[in-house]
Design a protein that fits this description.
Order of helices and strands: HEEEEHHEHHHHEHEH
Largest sheet: 7 strands, mixed
Radius of gyration: 18 Å
Bound molecules: zinc ion
Number of strands: 7
Mean pLDDT: 85
Number of helices: 9
């Protein structure tokens, strides 16, 4: 791993972040900022008006896109989602997985609520990248499930990390959150970063026969909190 030199102007935000986290109590562990906010603009969408904010990691080449609705406040619990990029589901409407429908449902729910945030984490295919994901899909065409396919390609079942996503939510000013996720690892990461998770909100996703098997695998092999018939 290469170490990045931190520009002096970044040190101030480190101090601010450290001070913020210390006030959150003993559970907080993020003492040094590892992400930086680099761009911020309006984004009118089909579901309404959002802000789109770009962050980059100070410890890797990873970039994050965050959609923010309303004013994030420390004194109210906002709906949040850490959405892992799924090009096939989010953009092409693939029904091999439920990602696109979850993203749509999360945006609509936040829109109704009037405030909330979605951290769009660019870790395609649970961290293996789009080309390897297509290779995994080819193995799935031959009968492997989503976990077996990743493992046969030499990857762990899930290579994602969520600590920087949680740090971004803190940086936005949020302290308490209502999480739209079935993934216990994401919820754990939010708590470990010092965010108070006051509720897990279930997204109403219209079921589809094609991704029923995928959800069953996530439930049985990855401990996701999905209800599968
Ligand atoms: Zn997907």
């Amino acid at each position: 791993m290469t170490l990045k030199l931190i520009h002096p102007s970044k040190r101030r935000s480190e101090h601010v972040a450290a001070a913020t986290v210390e006030r959150l109590g003993s559970k907080a562990v993020a003492h040094v900022a590892t992400v930086e906010r680099v761009a911020d603009a309006r984004l009118p969408t089909e579901t309404g008006e959002w802000r789109i904010i770009g962050f980059h990691s100070l410890s890797s080449a990873e970039e994050f896109v965050v959609l923010v609705k309303g004013e994030p406040r420390a004194n109210r619990a906002s709906l949040v989602r850490i959405h892992s990029q799924c090009l096939t589901g989010d953009v092409f409407g693939s029904i091999k997985c439920d990602c696109g429908r979850q993203l749509d449902a999360a945006m609509k729910l936040i829109e109704q609520e009037g405030h909330g945030a979605i951290v769009y984490q660019q870790q395609e295919g649970r961290g293996i990248g789009i080309i390897n994901k297509i290779r995994a899909y080819a193995l799935q065409d031959e009968g492997a499930d989503t976990i077996e396919a990743n493992e046969r390609l030499g990857f762990e079942a899930d290579m994602r990390r969520y600590d920087q996503c949680a740090e971004i939510l803190l940086d936005l000013g949020l302290r308490a959150v209502r999480v739209m996720s079935d993934n216990p690892a994401k919820i754990r990461a939010l708590r470990q970063a010092g965010l108070q998770v006051v509720e897990r909100v279930r997204l109403e996703i219209e079921p589809h026969d094609l991704f029923a098997g995928y959800l069953k695998t996530k439930k049985e092999k990855m401990g996701h909190l999905v209800s599968v018939a």
